[in-house]
Write a structure and sequence with these properties.
Length: about 300
């Protein structure tokens, strides 16, 4: 499978608000439909957040997640990666409740605390569809995305008990050492799966230099070839960073959680469009998107 690469698609997230894109899915049926379409376009894994079906705000309601998960599972064998990141202000208990409830193939495990700043988006929200949007993004100027060692160990143990593989979200170099500690504690099992998150204000930058820093540090800590990894970049660097990762042996994540544009000045009308572009880029360089079955083999999933 040396030319196979996993494409993950992050469908809606909790960063962008409905006003920022008319195409951003936030109703459960739309999130599920776009996830299925992204899988049909070539994504082996879909990363799922839930939204309030009345106003598009990030939601921790298990009933909303259930509607999304059941629809996807009924129509696709795509790997489900459900967030434990949640949204601004959610408790650890709220964030982790989806794992034992749905026992997904993968679930995000944020590998450390950061100042997670999306407040610059406020300047794009002069008139909003919903009242919550602007105060929500502005609040992150005074927000720490808290992931303490106690919380990380607890979430990892919940995932282990549920048969779910942690997708370890790495926002900066120091978090690789947090993962090393969790491995030594025995709450993580090899082979680990690292998701490099670049370009978020408060974390590492979204340049090729930053990607190389993460990749080389991970090689040094965990041993070259002893772990699986993927990368995403927020905003306009999504495709340049993902393309670079292909040549380094990495997998890739695209989607409207991370980027709302197909090209400069061209809004993405669906998550499937972003996946289709990534597939075209891959094939230009003789890479092939892994199927869900192949992704399960690459990641050594137990289920």
């Amino acid at each position: 499978m040396s030319n196979k690469r996993i494409i993950s698609c992050a469908i809606t997230g909790s960063i962008h608000t409905p006003t920022l894109s008319e195409y951003l899915p936030w109703k459960p049926e739309d999130i599920a439909r776009q996830a299925i379409d992204a899988a049909n376009a070539g994504a082996a894994s879909v990363h799922i957040h839930a939204r309030n079906p009345a106003n598009g705000a990030p939601s921790a309601e298990l009933g909303v997640y259930r509607e999304i998960v059941e629809k996807i599972r009924a129509e696709s064998d795509v790997l489900l990666c459900i967030t434990t990141g949640g949204g601004v202000g959610m408790s650890i208990e709220q964030r982790a409740a989806t794992v034992p409830e749905f026992k997904p193939d993968l679930s995000s495990m944020n590998a450390g605390s950061i100042n997670f700043g999306i407040f610059p988006l406020a300047k794009m929200l002069k008139e909003t569809k919903f009242d919550w949007e602007k105060p929500y993004v502005e609040s992150t100027q005074d927000f720490v995305f808290s992931n303490t060692f106690k919380a990380m160990e607890g979430i990892c143990l919940i995932m282990k008990e549920s048969g779910t593989k942690p997708e370890l979200e790495i926002y900066d170099i120091g978090q690789l050492y947090n993962v090393k500690y969790l491995l030594e504690r025995g709450v993580l099992e090899e082979p680990i799966f690292l998701q490099f998150v670049t370009g978020i204000l408060g974390g590492i930058g979204g340049t090729v230099y930053d990607l190389m820093n993460l990749h080389q540090t991970a090689d040094r800590i965990f041993g070259k070839g002893n772990y699986n990894w993927s990368v995403l970049s927020a905003g306009r660097m999504e495709f340049p960073i993902c393309t670079t990762a292909l040549f380094l042996g990495g997998n890739v994540r695209v989607g409207m959680e991370d980027n709302l544009f197909l090209a400069k000045g061209v809004p993405a009308k669906s998550n499937a469009e972003l996946v289709e572009k990534m597939v075209r880029i891959m094939r230009e360089f003789d890479f092939e998107p892994a199927t869900p079955r192949e992704a399960r083999e690459i990641l050594k999933l137990k289920r």
